[in-house]
Amino acid sequence: MKKTTLILIALAAALLLPACSSGDDGDGISADDGGGESLVEPDLGAPEESVESGGAEGRDQALPAVDLPGVGPKVIQTATLGVVVEDGRFDEAVRQARAIASRLGGFVVSSHTERLDDDAPRNGTLVLRVPGESYASAMDALGRLGRIELEGEQGQDVSQEFVDLEARRRHLEAVEAQLLELLERAGTVQAALAVQAQLNATQLELEQVRGRLRYLEDQTDLATITLDLREPDPEQADAGGWGVVDAWKAGAHAFVTVARWAFVLVGAVAPLLLVAALGWLAARFVRRRRAAAPTG
Question: In terms of Cα–Cα distance, which of 95, 83, 217 is closest to 147?
Answer without folding.
Answer: 83
